[in-house]
Batch of 2 targets.
Target 1
Amino acid sequence: MKKFMRHAIFYSVLIGIWALLAKLKVWPPYVFPSPQGVVESLAAGFADHSFWIAIGVSMKRMLLGYSLSVLLGMVLGLGVASNKFLEETMGGLLVSLQSLPSICWLPLAVLWFGLTEKAILFVVVMGSLLSVTIAMETGRQQMPKIYGMAGRNLGARGFRLFWHVLLPASLPYIISGLKQGWAFAWRSLISGEMIFVSLGLGQLLMMGRDLNDMSQVIAVMILIIAIGYIVDGLVFRTIERRLQQKWGLAPAT
Amino acid sequence: MTTNPISQPGFSEHRSPVRGSVTPHKSGLVPVRSNGNNGTAKLTLKNLSLTYKANGSSRLLALDGIDLKVKPGEFLCIVGPSGCGKSTLLHVIAGLQQPTAGHVLVDDNLMDGPGTDRILIFQELGLFPWLTVSENVEFGMKMKGIARAERQEKVQYYLRLVHLAQFKDSYIHQLSGGMRQRVALARALATEPDVLLMDEPFAALDAQTRDLLHDELERIWAETGRTIVFVTHNVREAVRLGDRVALFTFRPGRIKREYKVDLPRPRHLEDVTVAKSAREILDDLREEINKSLEAEYAGEVLKR
């Protein structure tokens, strides 16, 4: 509870200073909105369903794009990890490609797919594919060999060996990569949506700019942060904690 | 099958360098020679060799021309200095490692690859930490495609056999070393293998736990009638458990000698007869240990 109190104090002070600055009118409201204005924007956005729709559209793209990149990343990562030649050549390429911001794929995607849903999915996939692939590759390599041997010894072969042994055995090593992949995908999606006009949270953000509505801009930014935090904190941290408890890597708290 | 081999004349082709130099029946030990046995063996190793490719051009001969027969229901212990290829031999029998030459017969059929008729209990166990105790025990049966109801029944049976029934929902990290050992045993037994391969399973345990597990293993062996090949560096343990003890040489791994242990069961680690028999094998083993130490020392010197 003490931790909660500290958080409560910190955020009250932060919002207090914000409210004070807005009240003093150091800057005009269209440059520096008040907390009340942002809350009103949030309420209005949810009330007229525009925020719900944007969240729905963005989350659908995320789920699709992220699942695709996890699937592809698994295949690629395991392929790279199991082949010495691929590991040397493709492994290096993957690492160097990671220095390319994923939004740089958008022009290419638009030329390939046109202004379609496919283009934005492509950007999302490219944003997270590399971290997922690299996570799979290192996970496969760091995983103790004994589990694979024990699995084969007990009669597991082929896909069943992969599904029942190799995948769960490497999960503690790949979960942080999967989490990073999700974060990258989320960023790619929002930046993609900002440039590429078609519903979604990114577009809502740009609409706020076009309408000169600073309150909406801040409201949507808060929304984007909140969703990212919730998925990270609730989904991935829960999985991580469960894994650690099962494996005995951390005390069960 | 179980006739005293000393009464069977005509053992030939034994590689032992000390052939014929032992007095029989001293301290319950009878020197035996493999081969020349016309009954069906559960396991037959024929001229088994394995070479490791060490870094670059250097090669390491881990196993060199192993000929060995294991009778159905026999408890065979293999002793030897560490690094002599004992574990490698078990991996080969389990089908997890390919021999460079020679082959393994199971019931006179050529073995190729792993199979649930031969289950290896690894030295480091390899229990699955993401599964509960009962899911671990169930795993092999699941892979064999046994129906859920039957699996559950057998899990219960084998967990009771190793006295772990009340821990069925625990995860591996919550168990003590001895309990993990018993989970591994239950997991191996649950696939109902003909042959149980055990790689120094009790090396890391404290003395009391080990004594307890010796008794349990002997009881389970008697109850289930499995063939067991048990690798250890502890000669006393080998004599306490085995019907027969095979002594390995240090690099390349060969069978130096075999001993039939003719002591009545149940035996105990502290039995004078066990100690006496162990002493005899230990004298032979010491020679090999010295060789291994010399090799280690030479390696140290070379490194500097």
Target 2
Amino acid sequence: MTWLVLRIVLRAMLRERGRVLLALLSVALGVSVFLSIRLANRAAVASFAGFAAGIGQGSDLVVRAEAGPLRETALPALRGLRDEAWIRPVIEGTFSRRGVGGGAPEGFQLLGTDLVGLAGSAPATAEPPDAGSGSMASSGEGDGGAAGNFYRSLQDPAAVLVSTALARAEGLRIGSALSGFVNGRPVTLAVAGIAQDAPNRPPLQRNLLVMDLPAAQMVLGRPGELDRVELGLRGEASLPALELAAAAALPPGWVLEAPETRASSARTMTAAFRFNLTILSLIALAVGAYLLFQAFDAAVNRRRETWATLRSLGCPPRLLNALVLLEAALLGVAGSAAGVLLGWGMAQGAVRAVSKTVDTLYGASAARSAQLWPSEAALAFGLGTLTCLAAAWLPARTAAATVPVQLLARGSGTRPARWQALSAAGLLLALAGAGLAFLPVLPAGVAWHAYAGSGLVLLGGSLATLALLPLLGLPGGRRAPWAVRLALRPLRRPTGRHGFAAAALAVAVGMTIGMGVMVKSFEATVMTWIGTNLRADLYVAPLGSEGMAAQHRLSAALAESLAADPAVLAADRFQVVPLRLRGAPTFLGAADFNIHGRHGHVAIIEGGDPNVLLPHLHDLGLADPSAIASETFTRRFGVRLGDALEIPTPSGLRRLTVRGVYADYGNERGSLIVDRPVFLDWFHDDRVASLALYLRPGLDPNREGKRLFAAHPGLQFRSNASLRQQVTTIFHQTFALTYALEVIGLGVALAGLVQALLGLALARRGDIWTLRTLGAKEGEIAAVLLGEGLGVALAGTLGGLAMGVLLAQILVRVLNPQVFGWTLRFALPGPFMGLVLALTLLAAVLALLPAARWAARLRADREAEEGA
Amino acid sequence: MAVLLEARGVTKRYGSRAVLQSLDVAIAKGERLALLGPSGCGKTTLLNLLGGLDLPDEGTVRLEGEALEAMTAPRLAEVRRRTYGTVFQFFHLIPTLDARENIELPLHLLGWTPARIQDRARELVAAVGLESRAAAWPSELSGGEMQRIAVARALAARPAILLADEPTGNLDRASGEAVLDLLARLTEQEGTAMVMVTHSEAAATICHRILRLVDGRIIEGRTGEGGDRP
């Protein structure tokens, strides 16, 4: 066996270095794309839940309020748990700074907790989980700051602990000042300590600021409030016992969660984005598998006579099978190892793109670099090796099935594919997939049928593409010029190579078109929605505030002073709080319905004219509390117009009626909006998240914005036009990585096309040699091969185009509404599709041309020349 | 005797091994020459050099006085179109062209008019006795039929010289004899010179002259049974 392996497998690999290198590259590229996206996703999601891992040992349970903040005064209710668990109260907020040189504002997560307790000395309401962890212990970093100084410095209400990364990046030392804004107010914090990164733990995020609890409450303007209380098991205590004890001790309106809930909420938040990326990375791997299959198929075909000879010498088929699979395993292991390294490198770039989007979309501060997760690396490595083995499976069986009589066969070695049966089966599969995806009534959130349907459409569509090949071969009839005949005739009876190349390209083009049409539909819908919704002249929010999840708030007084400005005709105050309804996170917003109804506009889908509906809801007031629900909310919670809901509030459960449904593409959790007076009565929170200002007629929004900004430097004022521009920019930024991945997918498919052409040329080297002996010029032979390759490319592109439109229908009409609750207007972008078609064919010409020229210079097989 | 094709002092090496060693050979117009010898003696290499498909390491190959090695690639292709026809052991018909189209192919390369091409193809199909098989695909033809089509294709453009590489090497005896008859008859009719590589003494007899090659050298030259040399 070793003898055979050395001579048959390794020697062949050494002799066919080009083929081996191409196969290695295919594996490495597929693995690297997959891994880099996974690592980037990990980094982005990890940043949401970075605190628990960052500040010490993670908690075992977390206590939250169903709605609004926890009241610190109720904390003693948990005192009875102290024997079983340490207790850590936490408040969170955001500290923002203006960007350097007028750039984008920089946001920091401001965390308030009991630092004294955390560091392990004199616990008051809390005790540290692991006093020796040292992760939050003060480090002098050359300042000679001893622990005693640290604790003394904590008495300073502006004292803040910064990460080593931030201290190093900005040269911060103990006593350094950190100036910025909290909730629009200017704030200066004093560095009281620099947190050292603990060994064997992820390093602290650069943008994490930690303060002592009372100081953080003061800075955030939320005295007596907490966002959560973390509980950690002591010694031998058991989690079920703690859960029982905690549940019994919790005051009304407080709920117990497993700590991972927050991270999973974060995962839900980015689900749409991550889904998008993961699918695309898998496509790169799938197209890479096509490429590998071609490589192995070509390698097995080239060595047909070796297999036949081995069989005639008594070698069992199982051994031949094993030899091919062994070669695949060697390539898989080497290529995957290279892919893991390459992927880690690529992840550094990808994570920047992903984190930028996460920052923008979700108001969270994401990581800026990706670490190499061993589990992810192992997954990518295993997947790459398995893909390689799977791709070699069929060629290995072919090698094993080679009969000795093939020694006498001197043909091209390519057999026509059973394209009629395959394409008919493909068409049926694609139609079945579409039928499955469009299954009528299924509960919201259920999308397995759409995913399975999309998969079937991709598989079936790629097979159905085979039917285009014979059609494209039709122009090669008897009346066609000889070069056209020679180029297109092979397509009339396509071989497996033709079929695989066309199918791979069809998958890549189909995905590109599908995603492209979805993005364009999304864009068209969102732009129309923005055009309808954004009516105010100026939008005001605290610096760094983006999205519903942002924690910045304006004080009521500040909002009032802005509303009272002489230039302002009306001001619509918007506030939002996170809410847990039926155990799931969502948002409750509050708007001035009366003002919104008169001046603004909201895209109401159900419930009538917003200019009538909203003032009506305002008039109903507290007597009959009413809300409008986002479309996402109605789908997530199965709510219909007229349904009554029990809403948890700090003042207990309150009942409201849903009287309108509005379109909202801002978040995936859904939201309810009530009139502001109702919210104030229920939540006793008069702060404002953002403010829409309607200016008096004739005033210039830009000039007024600048004037107001001069008076309030901690706020950002965006004119209607600039906000629209910003939304457009965010939109394109969000999908930038998507486009990049699509390009990679197309690139891999085109590489497959080139490989297929080379395989076809190698198989047709006898024909090429004949043409040369007949006096055909190199350019003429190259043109023939190029024509054949372009025929395959055209079939793949056209098949992909049709498949992409069908896929887009599923994405737009089923997946988006079903999973994310977003109804999109299907928009078929003709110019975009034309561009994809043209660019793919142009790229195919550019990729095929050198391959065709190389192939045109091929010599005949040695045995053909020598007469064997 | 007018010399059509001449190789003078040609040496060809593959690595350090000399396949042909300082070899001289000349072919007259209309002459049929057989290169006889065991496998690996350099027959096919010599044929490739004579056809301009390969270049000698030393020496020269001249076609009507013009050195092939001095020609540019397009000129060589042009010469192959107009002057050479080739028949292979494994036929090498283009599988995606039917029998008639395979015969027509060199004429298309020469840019003949469709009417001329059809006339010539019809004439050749009749000459090789395959009128009923003209529309068949190569995969539907027997070995003998394929080689007859290949002979017709090689002679389609009325080349001055036909290079035949073991034309009967992959055929049964009866088919082989039929192909040899055809080669002799058609080259005679068309006045085409032929260089045939073979290891079959019997096949070589249709030629005017027979050269025996061993280890890249001509060790014997004798007259064949192909009748009087032109």
